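W.,

You were right to be curious about this one. When I first looked at the sequence I had no strong expectations either way, so I just let the prediction run and decided to look at it fresh. Below is the sequence, 125 residues in total, followed by the output.
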Amino acid sequence: QVQFVESGGGLVQPGGSLRLSCTVPGFTLDNYAIGWFRQAPGKEREGVACIGRIDSNTYYVDSVKGRFTISRENAKNTVYLQMNSLKPEDTAVYYCAKDTIVLRTGCRYYGMNDWGKGTLVTVSS
């Protein structure tokens, strides 16, 4: 089973920023489309942002457009999610996954539910 390693979460005030990182040991991430997904209590897991093998091919869910930026740094084999102007409703556990495709309608996950532990983002005063 693939182990996704997410990091960068924490407690932040509304309006603050965090940068999440995703690494998949054993895989070269520039060969894959990567998605960030999040799940809050009582909510379905939703695709937040994803990036294709071509970096310009991205998707953002409407609620984070203009605030979040997904990017890839191939030299570090890492995908990032820069999160600015955070809101309490962004509070969730954030996961990354490589079994993702970028569509106009969203980030579509087609993998084997081999999710990592995720990283918790808490936005609160």
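Here's what jumped out at me. DSSP finds no helices and twelve strands in the chain. And, maybe more interesting for your project: The first strand starts at residue 5 and ends at 7.

Coffee later to discuss?

I.
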